Amino acid sequence: MPHTLLFADPLAVRLELSGGKGANLSLLTQRGFPVPRGFIVSAHVYRDFIAGADSFLGRVADLPLNDAAALRTASVALQEEILCLPLPPSAVKEISKQLAQFPEKTAFSVRSSSTMEDLAGAAFAGQHETFLNVVSAEDVLRRVRGCYVSLWADRAIAYRRQQGFDHAQASMAVVVQQMVPSETAGVGFSINPMNGQLGEMVINANFGLGESVVSGDGEVDQWILDKPTRAVRSANIGNKSRHVIGAASGTCEVHLALADAEKPSLNDGQLAALVDLLTRVEASYAFPQDIEWAFADGHLWLLQSRPITTIPPRWTRDESAERFPNVITPLTWDFVESGFHRSLNHSFGLLGFPAFFGKWFAKFDHYIYGNQNAVELYARRAPFVVHSQDELRAAIPQLRQQFGWVQDLPVAWMRDLDHYLVTLGRFQAEALEDKTPPEIWRHVLAVNEHGAQYFLPNIAISIAHGMIYRVLHGLLKLVIGPTDADVLFDHLTAWCETKTGQINKELFELALLARQNEGLVGLIRGSASRELIARGALTRFPEFNAQFQRFLRDHGHREADFDAYAPTWSEAPWIVLDNLRLILQTPMDYLPKEKERELKIRAQQAEVTLFAKLPVDLHFFFHELLRLARTYTSLDDLEHYQTTRLTPVLRGGLRALGERLVQRNMLSEPMDIFFAHQEQIESALTTDSPDARNQFAAQVRRQKAAYLADQARTPEWVLGAPAAATVPDEPERMLSGLAGSPGVAEGPVFLVLTPDDFARFPKGAVLVARTTNPTWTPLFYSAAAVVTESGGPLSHGAVTAREMRIPAVMSVKESLTRLQNGQHVRVDGAAGRVELLDEYSPKEDTHAASPQERITVLHA
Asked: Which in 70, 618, 739, 799 has the greatest CB count within 10 A?
């Protein structure tokens, strides 16, 4: 392995050889960006160098990390020892040979490039040394050792500890690069890191070298620009009284005259060139970047680029309301949050995005909010952009390599599914009666960790699903034209085999079987489902009851709500009966199999249309794209179905633990365990004393009361936002959202907030909900239209509405506050509008026919 690597060397982009800074500069060089000439002293040289220190790693393991003063003393001792070590002679020879390739009296920058540096979430900014204006070979070699020494400065050690990195794995490459004698230099951000605005770019600049900008010691110039138009939104010209220039073997600070200090450090042409460079660098990485740059002799140089590691969160319900429509108990969220974020970063790794170290979702007053800045930063980005069929052809080989994981993931996921299910079965079969509370708790934690391991690739499935749909829709616009693309896209994606579809067909078959017995139909329609189950009324109908029990056996793990605190179908079988009642209200003259056949024919005809318009050499690409779109639609649904198998096992373990805690007067009822936090349970089980028990019981009571109070309110849509003002030009009787399913229908509103509302849903009403999930599908048989507070074209509500051929409008933010039961509305699914019509008061009997008489389907 060579001791040095030129920026143009293909090996130089490897992080383990070049460190973060060196790998980035090499990649930028190889992509054609204007990077000053240089080379990298490989991290292998550092490893050979440090091997000369006896038992060095042993002393690193014993560093006093919890005592700042002692750490500083130990750090100084390590650094002094390192300074005494010689560089390997072979490395000295190779570095000297590289330096000889530059013109005489060339000034260099010598920069640390840790193998842990410039990673997302761990930029190590300022933690390691940089030496500027180094003018002799002897000085370069001395500064290389100075970079090695900075790896063991107390600030760098503390930073690594904070980031969770292993000190023993720390290694250092060094970048040796020709100095740019800049007249103006600074930094640029392709998004606004201060407020998280993705539509803004920020540039900071000063005369001289960029050190005055990076250090933050004095005033600098700042421009904020509109990203789409590149127009300047604001310019703040600082009083730049000082700037940094190169000096003999280093730099010095000089003062500017007042007249010069107040001049802008960039002219309009330079600003435009910077914006163009920043835009191209972001496009090259497909991720927002923070760059260092310099102007010298009229030339713009790119000195560094790294992913923007942190932006402030903006908490909204935009992303979370569909996934988490209702309040969440403390313990459920404790279990979910860690596994979710692990899966998230696993998915970003597949996508080639930097890891995300903040919170994607967070719980505030028992409601889950999404970090909308993070969502837009990561999830809304186009995986690639082409503007013509020729560009698509040219991109296909790279796409095949970059997104090979999309084809591999379904196979790998199905391979691992058996292990997940078999192990889950073992957990479920485990006897808990003779276990102590700590042993039961360890069982619960093991189940949760097993679920987290299974869930690791599942967010990648959801991301890929949405990504493939966006790509398909965008390419249809490219090859077919925007006019016909929307309709063709809807037809191509109108049907796919899913687990939810299978369950709905089984429910429909149950309804058909029930219809064969008028007494059973009357019983289901005329009695409360919970009461029928309680008194075992279904046993009077053996054939139906057997099929009903088989349905619960196969699908009883399905949840009525995301929160594991809510019972599953097996525990609350009346929910299934409520769904059957809804189906029985609907005329069965249009069977699911007939609808399925119609949708399949529509999809097949759409394929014929598409391939007739495509060049032959693009047929295979689009065939694979369609196959993957359908594969991921099925897989996205299946992974959710299998994920919910965790719920009964977790609930069983927590119920057993809760029963023990009830016996100790720590809980009022077993399932109150869900109102405790994970660390509270662990503390109570570890410190088993009367005071600890009383404290735990009081915590749970307070937290349950807070949960119930939050359950009774409507959460704010945006945290910390001022009250929304009425939009003057929007009619008071019009609500807007996203188009979900085409068609127009009128009917009375019926709000469905929980599965308890299923049984009262009147046929012909407009279903209004926070969101829907697969267990809500039978409601669609009776609904005239669907309106949800969240979601989009790929949400369950939109997909199901399209299958049912009823209008749907998604993401109507005020739907649960502006709409009330009985109001008559017109839903325009294609336009994404809900119009309030005349008021309507339904009869007391919600199962009466009056809502159906009021419904008018205008067109579909």
From this structure: 799
